[in-house]
Amino acid sequence: MDTTMFFILGSAVLAIIYGLILIKMVLRWPAGNKQMQEIARAIQEGAKAYLNRQYRTIALVAVALF
């Protein structure tokens, strides 16, 4: 392998390590008060409904194209 491949792989490994560090930092933070948690739950429900609708639409398009 040449130096370009090592640079690419090294960058990918560093990005993964950085992501893991950020996950660890965020999970340490407090969840917030009751109102913040209710808002977060509402956002999660909305996001889940949106993604389910998107996946269903993409599946229909994929079946039609197939």
Order of helices and strands: HH
Strand content: under 5%
> How many strands appear in the DSSP assignment?
0
Give the radius of gyration: 20 Å
Largest sheet: none
Task: Give an account of the 3D structure.
This protein is mainly α and 66 residues long. It folds into two domains: 1-30; 32-66. The protein has two helices and no strands. The protein has helices at 3-28, 34-65. The protein is flat.
How are the SSEs ordered, and which strands pair?
Elements: H1 3-28, H2 34-65
Brief overview, please?
This protein has two helices and no strands. By secondary structure, the protein is mainly α. The chain has two domains: 1-30; 32-66.
Q: What brief labels describe this structure?
A:
88% helix; single chain; flat; mainly alpha; 66 residues; 2 domains
